[in-house]
Amino acid sequence: MVSQYGIKYAVHIITNHFGPLVAKVCDCLLKKGPLPLREIVRYTELSETLVRNCLLVLIQHNCLQPFLLEEEGGFGEVNKVSSLYMVLFDNVLHRVRFSKFMAIVSQEFDKLCVDLIETLLQHGRLSSEQIFDGFRDSTEGSSSGGMEALQENMHKLVMARYVERCPISEPFLALPSEEEAAPVRRRGAKSAKAFLEPETLEQRVLVAAVPPEGMRFSFELNPEIGADRDKVENNSSSNIGDKRKLDALESDIDGGVADKQVALWRVNFEEFIRRLRHKICIETVRTRLDDEAATVFTAMLDASRSEEKKIKTASSVPLSENSIYAEVIKSEKGRNMTLDYVISVLVGLSSSPPFVRVVDNSYSIDFKHTIEVAQTDEVESIVYKKYGKDAYRMFRLLSKAGRLLETDKISDSIFLEKKETANILSKMWQGDYLQMEKLIAGPTQFLLWKVNMINLRERVLDDMFHAALNLSLRVAYELEQQKEILHLGVDGPMKEKYEKLKKVRFLLESSRMKLDDAIMIFHDF
After folding, report:
1. Residue 403 CB neighbour total at 10 angstroms
2. Could you give the residue ranges of the DSSP H alpha helices within 109-200?
3. N- to C-terminal Cα distance for the chain?
4. Topology of domain 270-365, per CATH?
5. From 2.60.120.620, 1.10.10.10, 3.40.50.2020, 3.40.50.720, which CATH number describes the 4-88 domain?
6. Confidence label for 223 from pLDDT (cuts 50, 70 and 90)
7. Residue 180 — pLDDT band, cuts 50, 70, 90?
8. What pLDDT band is residue 253 in, cutting at 50, 70 and 90?
């Protein structure tokens, strides 16, 4: 479930990018959940035509997924099928990460690939013809050879999974069978907590919408594209492509079937988030251990990356010592290491805190624990900045203990007076960073303290959404100030004020990007 400030932040992003009307539809769907068209019209009090256009914009930019849901009919009636619309909250947040995605591509490929990614990020989803038509008047795409280069670069992006075919326009979700509806128990588990959480409606829709793997990342080079430019221009293929794309999108709203002859492409956010997750894991290992450990850890990521099927994978596939070493020596830093030294580094990675698990002489990355370590580091940093060094030491003690501790025990452990310890603990409890329980033994009352990391992560994430919203509003204000100065002219004393505002905005933008990194640790990873 999306938190209060998470919804406000997402709506603010949509408002900035598409205006208040589209944001109103988005806000309605985030608060009410998936709705049919008539309900969206009723709640937003907008005309049906306007709501349809807003939905088209959200679909075009991959922020909304239509789907068909089978529901039980009344007594003696057949099941009914409803057409619903669901906002993809994660994809809305990804809109502020476009610069990060482009930076990843620029590190691996040339400028043409970056330009292709930028085009798809800007327009949401496009057909191959529309993508290449956008480059026809440029230097790179002005000749047949240039169009071949464009196709080759597009092929590279698809093979690297940075670009994918768009999902099924309107996937069908049938009623779950009795076996599917029953809770699933983990094999060998004994406690009540061993039941796996059922998939949410959003998860079911996203899974149903994914095209088959062979189609999702399949791009065929077409030598005819760009071969006869004059003929293409005379036939106005660009306009035809726009019309076919619009028809496909409108069929989503009308519940029809999109034109299957038009293959639409979009940026694969999932792959970019996976790469950013890897980056955070590497930096966490580097901070906790050293550069050598980070080098070996990176090699393990590279060796197992192709086997990762989803973002929140708990662990990687097992790797042997030889396969890890073969990957390590591919890097310049890794070629300085011997096999024995790499094995010693793996021993360090598998010790407390275990970033790597060892089973039968095979090593696998423990993503779940690595991300939890990153989350703990982030929370401890917040506690340090908000409550001070002594509070940080108390929080760290309670976090490591993982159980209730009495005030005197905490005071003795960090060598601080009991009264001061109680005051600091009380402040953290009032800020919802600690959990407190009272134990009464006769006339004496004891206060016990504990860190509930699960609840705390949710609280911290909502605070981060709140902070991101405030930063975005401040950035928008500074931008308006700059526009006013530009309108008046930047000569004389106004030039100094303009430069100052420019620096302030740059600092705010940098802070927002760093804050978004922290949001990803708690929400996306």
Report:
1. 9
2. 111-123, 128-133, 144-159, 178-181
3. 16
4. Arc Repressor Mutant, subunit A (1.10.10)
5. 1.10.10.10
6. low
7. low
8. low
